[in-house]
Every structure is written in C-alpha cells, then in structure tokens.
UniProtKB/TrEMBL annotation:
<feature type="transmembrane region" description="Helical">
    <location>
        <begin position="471"/>
        <end position="491"/>
    </location>
</feature>
<protein>
    <recommendedName>
        <fullName>Amino-acid permease BAT1 homolog</fullName>
    </recommendedName>
</protein>
<keyword id="KW-0029">Amino-acid transport</keyword>
<feature type="transmembrane region" description="Helical">
    <location>
        <begin position="227"/>
        <end position="244"/>
    </location>
</feature>
<dbReference type="InterPro" id="IPR002293">
    <property type="entry name" value="AA/rel_permease1"/>
</dbReference>
<keyword id="KW-0812">Transmembrane</keyword>
<keyword id="KW-1133">Transmembrane helix</keyword>
<dbReference type="GO" id="GO:0005313">
    <property type="term" value="F:L-glutamate transmembrane transporter activity"/>
</dbReference>
<dbReference type="GO" id="GO:0015180">
    <property type="term" value="F:L-alanine transmembrane transporter activity"/>
</dbReference>
<feature type="transmembrane region" description="Helical">
    <location>
        <begin position="264"/>
        <end position="287"/>
    </location>
</feature>
<feature type="transmembrane region" description="Helical">
    <location>
        <begin position="321"/>
        <end position="342"/>
    </location>
</feature>
<feature type="transmembrane region" description="Helical">
    <location>
        <begin position="118"/>
        <end position="138"/>
    </location>
</feature>
<dbReference type="GO" id="GO:0015189">
    <property type="term" value="F:L-lysine transmembrane transporter activity"/>
</dbReference>
<feature type="transmembrane region" description="Helical">
    <location>
        <begin position="150"/>
        <end position="169"/>
    </location>
</feature>
<feature type="transmembrane region" description="Helical">
    <location>
        <begin position="25"/>
        <end position="46"/>
    </location>
</feature>
<comment type="similarity">
    <text>Belongs to the amino acid-polyamine-organocation (APC) superfamily. Amino acid/choline transporter (ACT) (TC 2.A.3.4) family.</text>
</comment>
<keyword id="KW-0813">Transport</keyword>
Length: 511
C-alpha cells in the first residue's frame, strides 16, 4: 500500500503521526463549513446589517466580502498544501519567515490565532445561548405578552452547558466527530435554503425594489455618511466568513491532507458565500418595518432575525410557533458550529504545545486511547467559558473581547500570506495545490484587504463617543499585540525556537 501523501509530507516536515488520520475530503470540508456557519453569523448580526445600510449593505456587501475572503482562502490553501500540519498558520509563518525571523513570526501568528479561535468559540456558543433565551421568550408570549426573559446569569449558564456538551462530543473518536461535522454541515446548508419559506409564509412581503435598492441611513448612532454606514454594514458579512482555516488544523487527521486540506478551505468559503447570499436574499423579502425589527421593545426584545420569523408566522396563522421552530432549526446548525469550533481550538492548542509555545506542555500534548488531544479539548472549553464571563460585567467589554474573533483571526490569516509574498517569495516550494504565477498577486490583494478591514472595523460605530459607545476593537487587538510582543521580548525569545521536529523520537522508538 502506498503511503498517504499527507502523512508522507508530515514526516518530511519532521513530525510523527500521533492523531488518527481518518478524515475524508468531505469530512474536512464539513468541519470548516460548520464553523463558518452562515446561519450563526447572519442571525446574530442581522440587526447590525439592518441598522447600518439595510438591504443594500448586505445584499451587495456579502458578495464583496465573499470575493476578497475567497482570495484570502486561496492564498491560505496554497500554503496549506505545502505545509499540511495541524500547526497551521503559526507553522507556515515559521517556515516562510526563515531561520532568523521564523520564531518571532511563529510566536505572534500562533497567539493571535489561538486567542482568536477561543474568542470565536465563545461568540458562537454565546449567540446560541442568546438564541435559546429568545426562543423561550417567544414561546411564553413574547416581551409584550408577559413572556419569560432570562437574566444574564441564565444566559451564561446556558453558554456553559453548551460548552460542556461540546467538550464531551470532542472527547469522542475522530470518526464520531467526522459524522457530527457532516451532520452540522448538512444542517447549515439545508437551513439556509429552508429559510426561503419565511417570505412565502408572511402575508406581506417586501418588494424587489426594497430588497435591491433600499439603503437605511436612519440609525440612532449619529452616523450620516452613507459610505461610512455601508462600511459598518460590511461587518456582518466579514465576521460571518471566518473559521475556514479549521481545514488546516485537521491536516494531521485528514487523508492526503496536502490535497484535501486546501480543497476543504476553498470549498467551505465558496459554498458558504453561495448559501449565505441565498439566505440573505430570502430573509430580506420578509423584512417590512426596520425600526420595529431593531426596537428593544418588540416581542423578541430586539433580536431582529427572531422578530422576522415570529412576525411572518403570526401574520399568517395568528401565532408565532412556526417562527420558533425555524429558530430551533437555526439553533441546531449553530450548535454544531460550536462543536466544530472547539475541535479546531483543541487541535491548534495541541500543536502549539507540541512545538513548545504553550504553558503546561506535557499536559496539553496528551493524546488519549482514541487518539484525541483530550486535555487540549477541555482546556479550550474552559478558556471559552471564562471569556464569556466578561458579559456579566459589561456587554461592551464582551463585544470588544469577541471582536478579536474577527480582526485577530484575520491578522493571523494575513501574516503567513504576507511572509509568502515577501521573505518567502523565492524559497517557497508549492504543494499539489498552487496558484502558479498568480500566487503573488492574489497574496498581495488578500493582505491589502485584511489591512483595510482591520482599519475600518476599528473606527467608531456611534457618535458622540463615550465610554459606552467607544469601539474597543483596537484596544482589545492592541492589548493582545502588546502582551504577545512583551512576552516575546522578556521571555519567549530565550527559549522558543519555532516548531520542533519530533521525528527523531519516532525513529528512536522504532529502533
């Protein structure tokens, strides 16, 4: 039997096979697609899109963000094909930066990546907890009908419960995770197209003119410049399109990872962009009264997508039961997104500890009898729960922290691509999946887009600026950057030398 090409390349990179290589290209794609989960991002941020620009901001903003995200994904896929290891981004940076700058590049990329991944898991499970809270509210009569509105403590308890379930599922063998990942992908895909039923149920629908031309410049945030408003509306699209790098972290467990890992990245983005646009288009035809959808005094307490579902069924049948059921379908998709996100977290934590960059190295490197990095799984779940605790003190602080899930992750995405087109331009040896002569051009466009959105999404989202309206994104991201650089200068540069080969250990064991 011929050696799996991904396993062969892993050995060439200096690593022994420790995790079970059992994922097919479909399973690899399914995990990334589940994490991207257009239903999760679009449901949670529909209010942002409606407030900043309305239909125009996301009907046209989605394909714009999707196009540039695809370019980022193509550049990442090319690098993934050359370096198919679960270390992913930080390993790529180490190799592309060369021996002099490699350790520092690996350190900063790895920490931005893993913190962004933790923040993403926190955000996904918190949005699921909030959705369940809204479902309970609507099921018991709605805000204006005496419905039960859970406290922030109940929401955080729900969040912890979902994380617990996800940690338990992630403790199962990879074959089970493969199955659940495919179920999650199917739920996300079918959920997007199933929601087309919403405008067909509603007794009143928006006109095509409203869907394709309405620009909502009427917001309570003191922003009147239409271009500025449109840019802020892009946040909904760009936040949703994250997490596709999971295909890289599953490389050690994917068959022929040098070919199938890149396919997972590109296909997860492409199908997400198509399914997401169909979802957006269908839902917008059910939008009628934007101010009412955004009002904190409506039946859903200001949860825009829930209010759309609820009103559509209530107008037709006199009750919103059908809307709650549709929210439940969305909740199932979000649940699997959280599960897959924790899978991705644990793999990068395992790899980062394997290469000497995480505290408690031997503890996090532990692999159980099912060949699962069990301690990395439970540690990642605990960190995600601790991050969510900030919501008890201030939602402003929580939103600032979770903003790292967008900007922080994209910075981690851009660093190896930047190194690929600069320091590693001549030394980079492409794998089976490559962009040929277009690799450099696509890489520069991808990096430029990340720089642009990092600046734009750090701008104020409300005026006048106060401690409650300040956009804390640059503070949060700048804080992470400062901590990472300080820890490097005062400690890590003395002992962290970048990814560490362990193939010698494998040879000794065989001897």
């Amino acid at each position: 039997m011929s050696l799996d090409s991904g396993k062969a390349r892993l050995q060439e990179l200096g690593y022994k096979q420790e995790l079970k290589r059992d994922l097919s290209v479909v399973s690899n794609f399914a995990i990334s697609f589940s994490i991207v989960s257009v239903i999760t991002g679009l449901n949670g941020l529909m209010g942002t899109g409606l407030n900043f620009g309305g239909p125009v901001s996301y009907i046209y903003g989605w394909p714009i963000a999707g196009t540039f995200t695809m370019l980022i994904g193509l550049s990442m896929a090319e690098i993934c094909s050359a370096y198919p290891t679960s270390g992913g981004l930080y390993y790529w940076s180490a190799k592309l930066a060369g021996p002099t700058w490699g350790p520092f590049a690996s350190w900063i990329t790895g920490w931005f990546n893993i913190i962004g991944q933790w923040a993403l898991t926190t955000s996904v499970d918190f949005s699921l907890a909030q959705l369940v809270q809204v479902m309970i509210l609507l099921s018991t009569g709605g805000l204006n009908g005496g419905g039960y509105q859970a406290s922030k403590y109940v929401v955080i308890a729900l969040h912890g419960g979902f994380l617990l379930l996800h940690a338990i599922l992630n403790s199962l063998p990879i074959s089970w995770l493969s199955f659940f990942g495919q179920v999650g992908a199917a739920c996300n895909f079918l959920g997007c197209f199933l929601m087309i039923v919403i405008p067909t149920v509603a007794t009143e629908r928006a006109s095509a003119k409203f869907v394709f031309t309405n620009f909502n410049a009427d917001n309570a945030d003191g922003i009147n410049n239409k271009f500025y408003i449109f840019i802020l509306g892009l946040l909904m699209s760009q936040f949703t399109l994250t997490g596709y790098d999971a295909s890289a972290y599953m490389s050690d467990e994917t068959k022929d990872a040098d070919k199938n890992g890149p396919k997972g990245i590109v296909s997860a983005i492409g199908i997400s962009v198509i399914a997401g646009w169909v979802y957006i288009l269908g839902i917008t035809f059910a939008v009628r009264d934007i101010p009412n959808l955004l009002s904190e005094n409506n039946d859903s307490g200001g949860h825009a997508i829930a209010q759309i579902f609820y009103e559509a069924f209530k107008s037709r049948y006199g009750n919103g039961v059908g809307g709650v059921i549709c929210l439940g379908i969305s909740g199932i998709a979000i649940f699997f997104a959280g599960m897959s996100s924790l899978t991705s977290n644990s793999r990068i934590a395992y790899a980062f500890s394997r290469d000497g960059a995480m505290p408690y190295l031997s503890f996090l490197q532990k692999v159980n009898k099912q060949e699962v990095p069990i301690n990395a799984v439970w540690m990642s779940a605990l960190v995600a729960f601790c991050m969510a605790l900030t919501s008890l003190g201030s939602l402003v602080a929580f939103e600032a922290m979770t903003s790292i899930a967008t900007i922080g992750l994209y910075i981690a995405y851009a660093l190896p691509i930047f190194l690929r087109v600069t320091l590693g331009r001549k030394s980079f040896t492409p794998g089976p999946f490559n962009l040929g002569k277009y690799g450099i051009l696509v890489g520069w466009i991808a990096v430029s887009w990340v720089v642009l959105i990092s600046v734009l999404f750090s701008l104020p989202v409300s005026y006048p600026i106060t401690d409650q309206t300040l956009n804390y994104t640059p503070v949060a991201v700048g804080g992470v950057l400062a901590i990472v650089i300080i820890s490097w200068n005062f400690s890590a540069r003395h002992w962290f030398k970048g990814p560490v080969k362990n193939i010698e250990e494998c040879s000794n064991e065989k001897a």
